[in-house]
Fold each of these.
Amino acid sequence: MATDSPTGESPSRGKRADAQRNRETVLAAAAEVFVTSGVDAPIRRIAAEAGVGMATIYRHFPTRADLVTAVYRHQIEACAEAGPSLLAAADSPFEALRQWIDLFVDFLVTKHGLADALQSDNERFAALHAYFLDRLLPVCALLLDASVEAGDIRPGTQPYELMRGIGNLCVGRDGDPRYDPRRLIALLLQGLQRPDAT
């Protein structure tokens, strides 16, 4: 008969917690490696960054597509969860929108190779793109609506067009160090504001 461990956890629960910690460590390491080397980075490099064996990575993520999908789902989730928190904490809804767009831009400009992956024929990546829209469009809508209601911005901007426009401004950031999309995005946001709110 199995006995509880000294920490009060059953052995199986302890193993599950260890496995979850390993998974989180691998996701964080993979995200860091993808920033510098793209989604085609060697798995052994991710394992070294995480401090785990390659077998641990393959146990959680049997294919590269599984790992890429899990990393970006995790980061999409973080971006989605940040919206309501920023809205509750910021000085104004527009400030919350601005801070959230900063996070969104971070997500877009550091995801080397993700755009190509999302346009591939792999069904997993097609599902990831749908998940990206399903999770982030409502957050963007929440922040836009709150900003309109507060009188900070003009009504009429659609979440999809704003996110798509920001995404388009971020294209080419990797290939040209002279181009900083954030300057143009700041101008775009300034253009959304009511004249009396600036």
Amino acid sequence: MSVLVVTGTGTEIGKTVVTAAVATAALAQGRSVAVLKPAQTGVGPDEPGDVAEVVRLAGPVTGAELARFPEPLAPNTAARRAGRAPVRPHEIAEAARELAATHDLVLVEGAGGLLVRLDDEGSTLADAARLLDAPVLLVTQPGLGTLNVTELSAEALRARGLSCAGVVLGSWPAEPDLAMRCNLADLPVVAGLPLLGAVPEGAGALSPEEFRSAAPLWLAPRLDGVWNAAAFTASVAAPAPVAG
């Protein structure tokens, strides 16, 4: 995968930390990595954005942004309110291709969920993925409600003829509840996609050294890690129901 598009089932579910983990694991394998954030919202001109966080955690990656809008809104709304031109899918594809010419892996991190609008015409990150013919990595949350939104996102990808590499849990807690433990087994079934990792809750607060040492342990071999979905699921399996 020279280009991998990272999206999610919503906002604030750990996409940036997952992107940093994927970048870290690739770097550990000796691969050169670039991270592209097409539309950064909710961050001022001189404030660090998601790309800066990936660089802080992962280390020597090339970071790039196409646009930055100050209000924490969907990219099309934020661009319109800022009186600026929105980011278009072809611009994302062109920037990713340029980075791919000089890097082994380019990670394109979207804003919010898969179908968050980039412009008033309804363009989305899915359109950029189609132009790139790039697989999509879907980040989701582990708790109650995730089965529905993950399945909907997977169906949207398939309906658009896009390939999905798999699903990563963006914030796995130290003490998962019953729904979370059940969801581990149910997510691959309802989404029709493999589980490719589980990033611990609070991983973004680790020191860069701790993060870089641990990141491959959170990701499956397809993402340059050593995480095993079957073993992880078995280790936190929900107890059998009590007969009534």
Amino acid sequence: MTEDGRGDTRTRILEVAAQMIAAEPGEDVSLRAICAEVGVKMPTLYHFFGNKQGLLEAVVERGFDLYLAKKESHESSGDPIQDLRDGWDAHVAFGVANPGFYTLMYGKIRPGYSPAAQSRPSEILRSLTDKAEAQGRLVVASEQAAAHILATNIGVTLRMIILAQEDWELSNATRDGVIAAITGTSAADSQRSVIHQVLEYANSRPEVLGLEETAMLSAWLRRLSEA
């Protein structure tokens, strides 16, 4: 078999494996079924990927390649905060459109382990939070801001995949909430937000004012928030 032929066979195995994983996310993929679809024997698959874990890691890397190609096709707005919003939306859209890839990329949990390819989109995210921090637009450290975004972005996307139902209202609300939290804009957006913060603070520490006084203050604050 020529080198070109060997390369084509490996690519074909990878493509078929990705298709089967995408078709049945969460299910255990049969190596024999993959080989049968490609038209090769099991030793050929083992030759290229070593074992099942090697094949899955190769599929994960392919998933990240596709994901990054999608992200890089979007031009920067020039504003790191807006780019964070756009990046969030692109992340969710990719996961919903590619549930098989996504569940391998972000849903397979092994303590202390993350795929090497996972660092590439994380570096892009961190570069945006670094820019925002340099502009004085964050109230948390750049690394913490990136962690806030990635953790919630993955959570929202996996929820949609698990439920097999898109929920862009939830995604948008969560995205805006996280952006508000890391930029410190949530408390300054409206008087009602400030009132609710005082209400929560007072009720979490009733011993400061006393039970009756706290109840009275809470009633007044609720009336103000409804005005």
